Amino acid sequence: MKYSLLASISASALVMSSSALAQDQIEWSGFGSIAAGMTTGSDDQLFGYDNDLDFNPGSLFALQAKANLSDKLSVTTQIMSRGSEDFDLGVEWAYLQYQLTDSASVNVGKLRLPFYMYSDYLDVGYSYHWLRTPQSVYRVPFDNYTGVSFQHNAFVGDFTFNTQIVAGNMQDDISVIGGETAEAELNNLIGFNTSAIYSNLTMRVAYYQTNDANIQLRGIDGDVDALLTLLEQVGADQIITELDASEDKGTFAGVGVMYDNFDWFVGAEYTELELENSYVPKQRSAYITAGKRFDSWALHATYGKTDDKVMNPERFAVPDPQLQAVVNQAANIVVTETAYSSIGVNVNIAPSAVLKFDVTHADNKLTDESDVLASAAVQFVF
Amino acid sequence: MMKKLAVFLIVLFAGMLSFSASANNGVVVSQTEINEESIARIYLGQSRVLTGVNLPEDSATRTAFEEALVGQTGNQLKRHWAKLKFTGRATPLETLNNDDAVIEFLKSNPQGIGYVSDKSKVSGDLKVIATF
After folding, report:
1. HSE toward the beta carbon, residue A291, CA cutoff 13 A
2. Which of A20, A174, A234, B2 could pair with A141 as two cysteines, CB 3.0-4.6 Å apart?
3. Contact call for B85 and A76, based on CB within 8 A
4. pLDDT tens digits, B19-64
5. Is the Cβ of A261 closer than 8 Å to some Cβ of chain B?
6. pTM of the model
7. Minimum Cα–Cα distance from B48: chain A residue
8. From which residue to which does the signal peptide run (chain A) (predicted)?
């Protein structure tokens, strides 16, 4: 699938470049991040890093080609190679854009699902102050969807409103329990986000929902499989339905704010994700961040927290106490309650490149474990 | 030694004077009348009512224009436009080499807008929209 898609994109890129050469209208650009990190404790693990220096988890390269087919119609592809996926090439964005008016456009294709304030720029580390977006909030295990997006800019008094409405579906292998991957599918996904910008202040709200969310549960984890078989044997099929994410309703809501007067900045985001009738808990996530810029460098700090809650735990009730203990364990399998604090220093090393240092401390309240990760990265655009 | 220092200071002072004089002479130019807020919106990629053109990144006129009328530093705007470019929100504005190229572009594009360091180059159908 990946290769056939890649082949077709490469082919279309070739067609694009040969036809566009004549018009001299193909625009190439790109960005990247070379990151290195290691945890300070020999048993510490965080964001894919352990106690050995690793260049893979945070490194990526992307190349974007945009061709204007007419004044109003353009085609854009973004091909990315991520260290976390062994630098395999993948198509991150691929869409047609039609400019409806001076302030409205519509995109069709493979697009970014804009859950969070920085979702759109997630991979363009150069564009934000963190080395990586705060993992307390930026933790939905998929980034893209296939479908339609409508963008609109409005000016009301001194306010600028950027609104985006999306519709489509998502199908991807996502990472679940203990780093294992599972097939996930969200259908009939609709939602919107609006940013209100007033001078140095940006406020944002977002809401998305699906009535058909599916995450394959069987075959991911031996213990989960054994439990499901056991539940079938004792005739507790109802519990399986409650654990399973199958044709379930999912909602996502988020609010964010950022004040940035170029000398200093402060911002925060809060999100809530719910997947009814499944093992996925209600996920509440937040962070607050602040920083100060100096001539060619900046200093910043971020505090974030996850606070998950198993919804209606009574739906997992079974008469057998021993079995109940196992069911409860399964229902709490992805519950997290972790606090993250990080400080970072950024140094502008070229007009289009920044060197970033970050130390993040994660404190897992449920296991009482804490991990410390030190990272450095050079992030750039061209 | 004192003499050298005095000469150095005079040259430096004169240099600063001429720099500030040229910075004060900058003008935003178009054939189409538009208000100052719209100028910022065009150069922030939020509005396409007119097609904006830029001078090169290392131009002092560009720096003065961005700080005075867009309200952002060059670095901030670079980050801002990186966001727009890689999310398909806007296409980067064209960069022209010098004042003369900007004037030439504006004369043949009624829907164009740009800025130059020298007010005296504004002629014909072109109007001064703002000064900086």
Report:
1. 23
2. A174
3. no
4. 444 446 899 999 999 998 899 999 999 888 999 999 999 999 999 9
5. no
6. 0.86
7. A102
8. 1-22
